[in-house]
Design a protein that fits this description.
The complex is a heterodimer of chains A (589) and B (262).
Chain A: H1 2-12, E1 13-23, E2 32-40, E3 44-48, H2 55-62, H3 65-68, E4 73-80, E5 83-84, H4 90-93, E6 97-100, H5 113-123, H6 128-141, H7 157-169, E7 175-179, H8 187-204, E8 207-211, H9 215-221, E9 224-229, E10 232-237, H10 239-244, H11 246-251, H12 258-270, H13 281-291, E11 323-333, E12 336-346, E13 351-355, H14 362-366, E14 377-382, E15 385-386, H15 392-395, E16 399-402, H16 415-425, H17 430-444, H18 459-471, E17 477-481, H19 489-504, E18 508-512, H20 516-522, E19 525-530, E20 533-539, H21 540-544, H22 547-552, H23 559-566, H24 579-584
Helix pairs in contact in A: 5-6, 5-7, 6-7, 7-8, 16-17, 16-18, 17-18, 18-19
Chain B: H1 14-17, H2 20-36, H3 40-56, H4 61-85, E1 92-96, E2 99-102, H5 103-129, H6 132-141, H7 146-174, H8 185-191, H9 193-216, H10 235-258
Antiparallel strand pairs in B: 1-2
The chains are: A alpha/beta (589), B mainly alpha (262).
């Protein structure tokens, strides 16, 4: 009986990892340390962990890339669908495990979508008729039928990732491994990818292993969450179990859904006999409706000051604005307008977030502030001067621009040289440059990395290097293009705290971001772009209290704000921005 | 924005529908023909034929201008320089000190320029009317090993990507106060180090990830690879290739036996 039961269990296992320890050939230090993990068939597991935890390495052991093509020191075993990945070639495992990577641009290499999806089965020698059937099927699953002939280059981020999924599906795997597939995507793209993956699990019983940072999505879709840190599994369980460990999660630098933070805070505040554990917005809503009294009316002051907006310096309207844009129109190609009449006035010392889907014109707009783009019509003034009269180099003294991908600026062999590049271009004296470099590195917390080659650092650190290299130029205005994309919560907080410090020192900050929690926490004012026009502009609290308008462009306020808005009939203010604020207006019935 | 890096123009013309092998062979023979003959009139006729092909392929005026503009500097240089170094023959059209321009030398210059144009337009007409995927498929069918075909396809596929990345890196460095268009020629060139270093680092990172992706899709599996879209020669393709080959052979024979177009 016992043996039969054991046999049945192994049959149902999709993945079994035992005592896996692995070190890359270039290093003695293991990246994975004694990993043990079982995944049942049809399960959806999410892997979370800070940068450098070993998540991507773990993914590569699942389809045999490690150790078949990336050798190194390996101990233990990985069995997928009954096959040991240590002893089968990668091509044999392709019809067991399909893998999707983070960067869409470097995993789609064909001329059109159809060719992309056929590539795998062609390599496996599948008959052309069968391949055609599979391509049709896979395109249907990811809802991309109408893009067959399109070059992957011309697809949106979400579409690219869906094609990558289809390209893996055409080899008929029963397990999908996705390594941060949504990290570079806008909210629409994220939604598209999540819904496709969820359908695959639900309707086709696909086993899914997904590395992800978005805790709210994980809470909605996963059966199980695995948290990794420094090569080890530190937490494992259902999303409810894992997200209840808010302290452990914070210690490893990860965020949990805001309703989970709320449950924890409520339990502490009210010493609840039966502790709450909210996982979704709905659960939190139901519990609060049934157990709590009408919200305590609180004044703004009582609600704490999580945002800078409360401490906002009073700015006189007649002061010369840092940046002013009047009836700005812009087209890359004749007749295709990307910006359609933008009016915007940003005062000195403001901290502004610009949000909106990709393609809404955010980057196009801010590139006008430092002259990288010139208006097709309309006017841009920086510090009261017409930007049209100045070169990009001249404007770079006043307006700094942090590009999204740090690799697009890093060229030096040491961090200090990289940071000194800007000041040198401005003709700053060597002594002064030295002070500036030291100050900038102190601000971002990289003093001990001066001599390190920046390209060997992790993404979060590389972004700090580029931030420092802009800071050292001491521009009055700083533009940050998606500064937190692709880095973990802890890294995001560190980076944004440096940015807040800059704002306190008087720099005007303009941040483009898709992360609504960052917006709520750091921006005093938010501008929403849709289709080349400003559809909302005001204090962040006001902007987030208009969910209906945000929804028209597929944006939503942070989860805790949505909760307050849904509970508005109970007296919760619709512009609550933080968990602390929400908790302070809760009272037991 | 990305359009300018793409050569292929999607149309449904007889030229587009031709088997890529026919077009590859046609373009190659056209280029060889341009080398074999040197008579101005014969070259001009070949040039006219290539232009007809481009017209039939409904290549837009914009793209035609782009192609012409690309080779115009070279053409002008050849026409101007040739007579300077090759000054035999009469009549002398112009002389000023050591500069002597004779009619034959000018004509030879023009035909040399025309030859370059014919060769370039053979290549352009091929690229404008053939999707890069079929081009590679054609080359593989003609005997190029698949690995090389894939490399070529990937190279072509990533031209727009890298075009975009280079522009973005230039922007990123300009935003840090780098003035790419200031200073002497040497200094300007040296400044491009700040652009090329990130390009190389980015390319290496991408190549690394790309190799993982390609391998994860069963590349190199020890089985015979299949192809979904197989190329099949239609009657019209066979006729087209026959016409091209006969015309080419005729031209070469005429040149060799009778000195036609020499």
């Amino acid at each position: 009986m016992a043996a039969e039961k054991a046999l049945k269990q192994t049959e149902e296992l999709a993945i079994e990892i035992r005592g896996l320890t692995y070190a890359y050939p270039t290093s003695e230090q293991p990246v994975l340390k004694d990993i043990n993990l079982k995944v049942c068939k049809g399960e959806f597991i999410s892997i979370m962990g800070p940068t450098g935890a070993g998540k991507s390495t773990l993914c590569l052991t699942l389809n045999g890339i490690i150790p078949q093509s990336l050798s190194g020191k390996i101990e233990g075993s990985v069995v997928v669908d009954g096959m040991n990945t240590l002893s089968y070639g990668v091509h044999v495992l392709t019809n067991k495990v399909g893998i999707i990577f983070q960067e869409p641009e470097s995993q789609l290499f064909s001329m059109n979508v159809e060719e992309e999806i056929s590539f795998g089965p062609e390599n496996l020698g599948v008959s052309p008729d069968e391949i055609r059937k599979r391509v049709d099927w896979a395109l249907g699953v990811v809802r991309m039928e109408q893009y067959r002939q399109r070059s992957p280059f011309r697809l949106s981020g979400g579409q690219k990732q869906r094609v990558a999924i289809a390209a893996a599906l055409s080899m008929m795997p029963s397990i999908l491994v996705l390594d941060e597939p949504t990290s570079g995507l806008d909210p629409i793209g994220k939604m598209e990818v999540f819904s496709v993956v969820h359908d695959l699990k639900r309707m086709r019983n696909m086993t899914v292993v997904m590395v992800e940072h978005e805790s709210e999505e994980i809470a909605r879709f996963s059966d199980k969450v695995v948290v990794m840190n420094e090569g080890k599994i530190v937490l494992e369980g259902t999303p409810r179990e894992v997200f209840a460990q808010t302290q452990t999660m914070m210690d490893v630098g990860l965020s949990v859904p805001q309703v989970c933070e709320l449950a924890e805070m409520v339990n502490r505040k009210f010493q609840s006999k039966k502790p709450y554990s909210f996982l979704t917005l709905q659960e939190a809503k139901d519990a609060i409706r049934s157990d709590f009294a009408e919200a305590r009316p609180t004044s703004r002051k009582d609600r704490g000051t999580s945002s800078v907006s409360e401490q906002r310096r009073t700015v006189r309207d007649d002061a010369v604005p840092a940046v002013e844009v009047g009836d700005l129109h812009f087209e890359y190609e004749k007749g295709i307008e990307v910006l359609r009449g933008i009016d915007l006035r940003i005062q000195k010392g403001e901290c502004v977030a610009i949000i909106g889907q990709n393609g809404s014109g955010k980057t196009t707009l801010v590139k006008h502030f430092n002259g990288l783009l010139r208006p097709t019509s309309g006017k841009v003034t920086v510090n009261g001067d017409d930007a049209a009269d100045k070169t990009v180099a001249e404007l770079s003294r006043t307006v700094g621009y942090l590009f999204q991908n740090p690799d697009h600026q890093i060229f030096s062999t040491s961090v200090e040289e990289e940071v000194a590049f800007g000041p040198k271009n401005l003709g700053i004296s060597p002594e002064d440059t030295e002070t500036r470099v030291a100050n900038a590195l102190r601000l971002v917390g990289l003093e001990s990395y001066r001599k390190v080659p920046p390209s060997t650092l992790g993404l979060g650190q590389r972004r700090k290097v580029t931030l420092a290299s802009i800071v050292a130029m001491r521009p009055e205005v700083m533009i940050l293009d998606e500064p937190t994309t692709g880095i973990d919560w802890n890294g995001s907080i560190q980076l944004m705290n440096s940015v807040r410090e800059l704002n306190r020192q008087g720099h005007t900050i303009i941040t483009i971001t898709h992360n609504m929690r960052v917006v709520a926490q750091y921006a005093e004012r938010t501008v929403v772009l849709a289709d080349g026009q400003v559809i909302l502009d005001g204090p962040t609290r006001e902007v987030f209290s208009k969910p209906d308008i945000l929804r028209t462009t597929f944006l939503a306020p942070p989860q805790i704000t949505s909760l307050a808005q849904d509970l508005q009939p109970m007296g919760f203010a619709p512009d609550i921005l933080s968990v602390e604020e929400f908790c302070s207006s809760l009272e037991v019935r | 924005m990305s359009m300018k890096y793409d050569l292929y123009i999607e149309r449904n013309t007889a030229i587009h529908r031709l088997d890529p092998r026919v077009k590859l062979i046609g373009a190659a023979l056209g280029m060889i023909a341009a080398v074999v003959v040197s008579d101005l009139l014969v070259l001009a006729s070949i040039y006219a034929i290539v232009l007809v092909v481009i017209k039939l392929g409904q290549v837009t005026w914009e793209r035609f201008k782009f192609a012409t503009r690309t080779i115009l500097p070279v053409s002008i240089m050849i026409v101007c320089l040739w007579p300077l170094f090759y000054r035999t023959g009469t009549p002398v059209l112009f002389s000023w000190g050591p500069i002597i321009i004779t009619l034959p030398s000018l004509l030879t210059g023009i035909s040399a320029a025309l030859r370059i144009n014919v060769m370039a337009f053979c290549a352009f007409s091929l690229l404008y009317t053939t999707p890069q995927g079929s081009l590679v498929r054609g080359l593989v069918k003609l005997g190029l090993p698949y690995e090389y075909g894939l490399s070529l396809a990937i190279a072509l596929r990533y031209i727009p990507t890298f075009g975009g990345i280079i522009l973005m890196i230039m922007d990123a460095q300009k935003a840090r106060g780098l003035e790419l268009d200031k200073g002497s020629f040497l200094r300007k060139t040296l400044k491009y180090v700040y652009v090329m270093a990130p390009v190389v680092i980015t390319a290496l990172r991408m190549a690394d990830q790309l190799s993982l992706a390609i391998e994860s899709r069963a590349f190199g599996a020890p089985v015979k690879r299949t192809y979904v879209t197989d190329l099949r020669m239609r009657v019209v393709d066979t006729i087209a290739i026959a016409v091209v080959v006969v015309a080419f052979t005729g031209l070469v024979l005429a040149r060799l036996l009778y000195g036609f177009g020499a």
